[in-house]
Amino acid sequence: MENFDVIVVGGGPAGLSAAISAARAGMKVCVVERGDYPGTKNVMGGVLYTQPTNEVVPDFWKDAPLERPVIEQRYGIMSKDELFTAAYRDPAWGQPPYNAHTVLRVKFDRWLAEEAEKLGVMIVPETVVDDLLYHGDDVVGVRTTRPDGDLGAKVVILAEGANNFVAVKAGLAKPLHPDSVAVVAKEIIALPAEKIEDRFCLEPHEGATIELFGDSTDGILGTSFIYTNKDSISIGVGAMVGAMGRKGWSPNDLLENLKAKPYIKRLLQGGEIKEYLAHLIPEGGYNSVPKLYRQGVMVVGDAAMFVNGLTREGSNLATTSGLIAGKVAAEAIQSGDTSAQAMSVYETRLRDSFVIKDLYKFRNLIGLLENNPHLLGEYPEMLNQAARMYFTIDGTPKTEVFKNIMGVFTKRRGKSGLVKDMFKAWRALK
Amino acid sequence: MKLDDKLYLVRFNTDTLNHIKIKNPDLCLKCKDKVCTFICPAHVYDWDEEENRIAVGYEGCLECGTCRVACTDDNILWEYPRGGFGVSWKNG
Ligand SMILES: Cc1cc2nc3c(=O)[nH]c(=O)nc-3n(C[C@H](O)[C@H](O)[C@H](O)COP(=O)(O)OP(=O)(O)OC[C@H]3O[C@@H](n4cnc5c(N)ncnc54)[C@H](O)[C@@H]3O)c2cc1C
Ligand code: SF4
Ligand code: SF4
User: Fold this and answer.
1) Could you state, in order of their start, the residue ranges of all structural domains in chain B?
2) Domain formed by B3-87, architecture
3) How many other C-beta atoms can be found within 10 angstroms of the C-beta atom of residue A43?
4) pTM of the model
5) Interval A173-195 mean pLDDT
6) ipTM attached to this prediction
7) pLDDT band at A221 (very low <50, low <70, confident <90, very high)
8) Ligand lying nearest the CA atom of residue B7
9) Which CATH number is associated with domain A181-282?
10) Atom of ligand 1 at shortest distance to CA of A236?
11) Minimal-distance CA residue of chain B relative to A251
């Protein structure tokens, strides 16, 4: 049996960041990945934020395969064919040090794995980890599904993504619940660069993102996204598995519905579908976070449910948690103590970082939206109705227009209903 | 584009071993909504009227993991295909 200091299960951003940070600290590291190579099983929108990745590979944007730096982020609320949008744009985001880039994960993860290899990390592809390997109660490595596939390690980092089978087997995580994961269907649609730049008002090499709420997911908790790549567009719809099952939706139908909306149709017109993809996003938030460590083991990234659905952040939480875990693993091994207490430093540092602070901040939001479906169902309609009244010039005096707009809200929710909704929202975010 | 045509664009390295099993076909007989038949983004599950059971076309599985979470009776045994087999995205 071959032995390592650290074995990382899964070669996504969490696992590769963990591997790189442990290798930098002098550890002998192995990443076990079930795909042909890191990246071939991975799907994201995807917006990759600069700051955490820059900590993994400084100035990564000089070499990494990135699509476009994001200079505009648009949010929209949809109701049938109506759409209310608002956007923030800053061309400075198109220059170093950048805020975020769009990426395609097959290319990006492969590149990151090659960076890890340069630091001596061994990547073992085409290999599924089935379980941890124990000696008594102590974790001493991993068991893979290959014949004679045991690998020894002083510390194992579980970076297996949303389908966290190993963490569940190890008793750290509970099986996924339909109300805490979203399924996303996504397409890559090829379009010439000039068309993308014209339609999204971009200079060559600049990128833009759009997130849509409301009717684009039929009022189900979730979002739709449209991101510009170099010469393609990523479009997807993600919605909670439980609610989708209850409403009878299929992910592909939700996506087709979105693509048929007037504004969206025009953005995609003439494009050619290159790939159709699907993936889970763990959206259960703080309350779904599993136990993060035990003797010789840490759980990072999506496997630990580190996703902030509201702000579509996942890869950055994965990267940051991976970096911290890799470092804690090295420190523990160097001091000869891989006990649960030594591993608990990982959780302490995570709690001091944005990862758990943000998840905690939004901990009540998912429950609020799930228990109050009208917030995602009726409010988008009301907002668009109000906007229509405000922008319609038909001789109605403005005093009356404002009264009618207020009437829309009070008629549908009642005065006390409105106050209650506002109070609930304030309480969930305070 | 129809779903079948979209799936045609996906690159697979198909395993000869089936990685999806229905644990207890009798439960499916009593299952009202048959969530698996519509929530799977690749339409891997189909109700076979003649045989009165769920037919599983595992070869087209995109490995998202939705079905096993969505089945209301926890009746789907879904494991990863063997290493290197299954879906292999071109872009991700
Ligand atoms: C459609 C979509 C859009 C998204 N958009 C964004 C976005 O715009 N911005 C953002 O920041 N985040 C986004 N996210 C979230 C982001 O993709 C994840 O948070 C991030 O990929 C998590 O990284 P990870 O390394 O923890 O897991 P993953 O990226 O899922 O990597 C897990 C790896 O482990 C491997 N693996 C799993 N099990 C085993 C096993 N048993 N043995 C061996 N290998 C195994 C897998 O093959 C995979 O390579 C999006 C997610 C989806 C699905
Ligand atoms: S949802 Fe589960 S129980 Fe129902 S038909 Fe499908 S596999 Fe059978
Ligand atoms: S894992 Fe996803 S694609 Fe595969 S059968 Fe289940 S729902 Fe369908």
Assistant:
1) 3-87
2) 2-Layer Sandwich (3.30)
3) 28
4) 0.97
5) 97
6) 0.97
7) confident
8) 3
9) 3.30.70
10) 1
11) B41
